Amino acid sequence: MKAGEIVEIMERHFPLSLQEEWDVSGFQCGHYEQEVHKIMIALDCDLRTIREAIAKGCDMLITHHPFLFKRLDLNLSGYVGTCIEEAIKNDLVIYSSHTPLDKVAMNNWLCEELGLIEVGECEETGIAKAGKLQEEMSLNDFIEHVKNVFHLDYVRIAGDKETIHTVAVCGGAGADFIHNIDVDAYLTGDIKYHAGEDSTICDMVLVDVGHHVEVIMVEKLKELLQEEIAAEIITSTSPDYFRFA
After folding, report:
1. Is 10 in contact with 33 (CB distance < 8 Å)?
2. How far, CA to CA in Å, does 243 sit from each of 146, 153, 239, 240?
3. Partner of 97 for a Cys bridge, out of 83, 101, 147, 234, CB 3.0 to 4.6 A?
4. Cα(80)–Cα(78) distance, rounded to whole angstroms?
């Protein structure tokens, strides 16, 4: 298949028209007419992932987080320039779907993993989703459930409630939505200190699951695309940037 045909499939599922105005989803570099026989799916588009895709003989890299968030700099001695140079020299097409994938699938996938029902939008952008646990849980049981589902050794928690029934989820940096969401517990990542105070004001439990929880998209997107794309699809290791000591 040609890269352009794969882009069309991605954008049929995750239309670029859905992206937030600050986002830079879409075609990152490469050639639409390039033949693609092997695709790697990854959470982040960075130098380590580009080199992993090249080492594994891939023709195309599809990611959630775009690398063009960083200032576009074609100085090949700089970081972004090096990413572009390595991709182009090795005929690697790069495509990213960030907020379109968030709105259509990412946070729905996370809600599904938690076992939430009656899932729907819960704030204006449509990025965060909310639903209900099938049965109420004590706060302690809920936190253990979250850790088990997402394979986390620990989470940060602010606020307190005896029981949890309604839950909102935003795998990315969702602290800006706190005052627009009415739930018992809100799971998100990249939380700054004063978001803890905001959760107390809003009478909710805030659970910092870390941004890397979005790595769920790697296998989920592979499953989706395998039904429509006549190319081998592999997944990146997509490690977290942080180590915990």
Report:
1. no
2. 20, 12, 10, 7
3. 101
4. 6
Q: Where are the beta strands (DSSP E) in the chain?
A: 26-29, 38-44, 60-65, 93-96, 117-121, 129-138, 156-158, 163-173, 185-189, 205-208, 232-235
Distance CA 92, CA 161 (A): 49
Instruction: Please give the Cα distance from 113 to 155 (Å, whole number).
Output: 17
Beta bridge partners of 161: none
Residue 233, both tokens: 């699809």
pTM: 0.95
Alpha-carbon dihedral of residues 221, 224, 226, 232, nearest 10 degrees?
-10
The answer to whether the beta carbons of residues 90 and 49 sit under 8 Å apart is no
Q: Which two tokens stand for residue 159?
A: 């606020």
Mean of the per-residue pLDDT values for the chain?
95
Q: Tens of pLDDT along 10-37? A: 999 999 999 999 999 999 999 999 999 9
Q: Closest Cα partner for 235 from 52, 110, 105?
A: 52
Which is it for strands 38-44 and 232-235: parallel, antiparallel or unpaired? Answer: parallel
Residue 129: beta bridge partners? 121, 169
DSSP conformational letter for 4 = H
Which whole-number Å values give the CA distances from 78 to 65, 71, 212, in the listed order? 19, 10, 25
Q: What angle do CA 206, 209, 214 make, to 5 degrees?
A: 130
> Distance (Å, rounded) from C-alpha 85 to C-alpha 79?
10
| pLDDT value of position 63 | 98
Which pLDDT band, with edges at 50, 70 and 90, does 80 fall under? confident
